[in-house]
């Protein structure tokens, strides 16, 4: 794997291109380090876990730089700290606040390739912290933004974004370009190609991000602002889905925005992240929650504090039509509803926006519905 | 091992003692990292090897801090850089130039135990470098010096210094205190308990260093200036030895200090480190060289540049009587010579100083001679 990457980078470097590579830990390194920590502390102190985990990416970076040097490419590795990645926050969940581009620029003066350990940085107190989920993607985008005008490419285990999950739909098509907004919708809904954090960062700094497979040739997707010019054209880009969804209905009396605000504050205080929020009837707030989040305690709290009655529907999923100007006439909603009805799918909740039409449906109907929508909206690969 | 250390440190910490621990890499970590590097580059780029190797000690430090935290001790780990270890030099062979004590002192304000990754530091350009041999000992001594007034204890695989190598002599005695000078003589001559670099650093900063076994209770040795008061009293402290020694005789004509200087400059330029140097006859320079050093090329150079004729005697060793005021009357040299003669040991070369009397002898005579000297100088353990 390291040798494959080194071969490819050496090929690109032969043309004289200067590059900054951001790497994550190799293979099972992260698991091994977590197991090592588990031998001595349960749970390990979060700060020390960060000190430990950060070595995983440092090892990858050093090894890749060695492999490049072996191929005659001048390469140096840098820890997140050495690369000027300034972060803040808690261990294991830090966020990048600033990148000092001078450090990497200085290295690029003498080395053709700079390999940066992803997922980590140094805070104002000199503490080494690892980033939260999507930390390597975010490091790459932040460095590209700081360097200015750099192309940013994320290598992962898929060929960019497709029109639906290929494990469900046999004839998906690659999406060549996608806007930041649409990418966030897709990423947030199961097509987890790029972490929403990194997309948000790319949008804010106008960094175009190409997502490609780490080793196989094939299609790739560019996430960029360029597609914004198409924002006015109604277009379906893909079908996203979630499998493990619960639908919560909260009834409060008296009802009104003030009561809803109190419900939301109580949920936020309990760490529940409501998605697809709507209030279909007076006095009822409706939202979905992902399967992994504990629901009992916050619902108990709602009952205690606001005398709210809650119902939780389990074993649900969702399908989303993702695109641009989806509600502009003639609109894609009528067709979505027609397809759902044609398949006799019950829809206990639906939310809509210009970029996403989401139907909450039974979990066991997700696969067939995704296939039906993919087909109906003409996303299937052109096999002529 | 980590748990044993953590248990012991927790016991000491229970009394309220604040501590700085310096750790090296665990078990076979260093070998595994070298093997990993070898998979991708042969030889690996020295700078990258340092970036890689430094993670070994960082892992140890984080894991020990976790284990301490698990035992209710407030502990934090620091990389060499985070601990303010400033170094200069080449990768794999850097030297500590300064320690910024503020960094560790600040940590000791909030944590009772600070665990520092040994063997590493950061240079003025922000490069991470590992220290040469003895790097962990040296880190500990440098930190003790920087913190001022701290006790320094080195835990290793022996119970301090003994009067001779216990693998050769059955009834050695522990040496309770030893001066810096004597320790350097012993360390340089095979009793490699503490690296001479760390002893030199301890002397320069007046740091008393206790050397003890890492896990077993037992005797220990304090290396300190305190013994200097005994410097005037003739005393034999121990018998050191070397096994793999070659004796080189260089004959130059015309002879004289100037010619000798040219010989030494040529040798230094070839990386040969002459030891036990003497010039017994006009025109002949005599010195020993350790077995691992390549001798052919420098001797060829001497012949070319200075028309010097050289003879190399192989399969030699050396025994040294180490102590204080060794040449003061009545002197230990006569007894040494008498013992060597009594055992019919040939002595092709001998050098003497107040702290060391060294005889170059056949390698196969080393063991019996060490035992005879240990016995004759009354160093044997008092078994009454």
Automatic annotation (TrEMBL), chains A, B:
This is Aspartokinase. Pathway: Amino-acid biosynthesis; L-lysine biosynthesis via DAP pathway; (S)-tetrahydrodipicolinate from L-aspartate: step 1/4; Amino-acid biosynthesis; L-threonine biosynthesis; L-threonine from L-aspartate: step 1/5; Amino-acid biosynthesis; L-methionine biosynthesis via de novo pathway; L-homoserine from L-aspartate: step 1/3. Catalyzes the phosphorylation of the beta-carboxyl group of aspartic acid with ATP to yield 4-phospho-L-aspartate, which is involved in the branched biosynthetic pathway leading to the biosynthesis of amino acids lysine, threonine, isoleucine and methionine. Residues 319-377 form the Aspartokinase ACT domain. One of its GO terms (biological process) is lysine biosynthetic process via diaminopimelate. One of its GO terms (cellular component) is cytosol. The keyword Hydrolase does not apply. Belongs to the aspartokinase family. Gene3D superfamilies: Acetylglutamate kinase-like, VC0802-like. The lineage of its organism: Bacteria, Bacillati, Actinomycetota, Actinomycetes, Pseudonocardiales. ATP binds at residues 156-157, 167.
């Amino acid at each position: 794997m390291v040798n494959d990457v080194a071969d490819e980078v050496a090929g690109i470097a032969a043309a004289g291109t200067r590059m900054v590579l951001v790497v994550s830990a190799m293979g099972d390194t992260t698991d091994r380090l977590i197991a090592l920590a588990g031998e001595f502390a349960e749970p390990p102190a979060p700060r020390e876990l960060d000190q430990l985990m950060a070595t995983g990416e440092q090892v990858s970076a050093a090894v890749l730089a060695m492999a490049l040097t072996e191929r005659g490419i001048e390469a140096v590795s840098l820890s997140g700290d050495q690369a000027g990645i300034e972060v803040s926050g808690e261990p294991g969940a830090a966020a990048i606040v600033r990148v000092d581009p001078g450090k990497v620029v200085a290295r690029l003066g003498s080395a053709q390739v700079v390999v940066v350990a992803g997922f980590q940085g140094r805070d104002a107190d000199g503490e080494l912290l690892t980033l939260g989920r999507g930390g390597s993607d975010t490091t790459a985008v932040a460095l590209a933004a700081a360097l200015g005008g750099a192309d940013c490419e994320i290598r992962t285990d898929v060929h960019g974004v497709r029109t639906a999950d290929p494990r469900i739909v046999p004839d998906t098509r690659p999406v060549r370009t996608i806007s930041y907004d649409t990418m966030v919708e897709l990423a947030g809904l199961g097509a987890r190609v790029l972490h929403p954090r990194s997309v948000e960062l790319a949008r804010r700094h106008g960094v175009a991000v190409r997502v490609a497979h780490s080793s196989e040739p094939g299609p790739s997707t560019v996430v960029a602002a360029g597609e914004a010019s198409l924002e006015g054209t109604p277009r379906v880009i893909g079908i996203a889905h979630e499998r493990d969804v619960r639908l919560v209905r909260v009834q409060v009396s008296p009802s009104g925005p003030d009561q809803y605000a109190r419900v939301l504050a109580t949920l936020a205080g309990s760490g529940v992240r409501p998605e697809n929020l709507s209030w279909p009837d007076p006095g009822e707030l409706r939202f979905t929650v992902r399967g992994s989040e504990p629901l009992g305690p916050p619902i108990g709290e709602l009952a205690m504090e606001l005398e709210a009655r809650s119902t939780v529907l389990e074993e649900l999923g969702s399908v989303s039509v993702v695109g641009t100007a989806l509600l502009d006439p003639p609109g894609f909603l009528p067709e979505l509803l027609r397809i759902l009805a044609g398949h006799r799918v019950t829809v206990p909740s639906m939310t809509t926006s210009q970029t996403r039409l989401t139907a909450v449906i039974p979990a066991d109907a997700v696969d067939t519905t995704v296939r039906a929508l993919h087909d109906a909206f003409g996303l299937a690969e052109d096999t002529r």
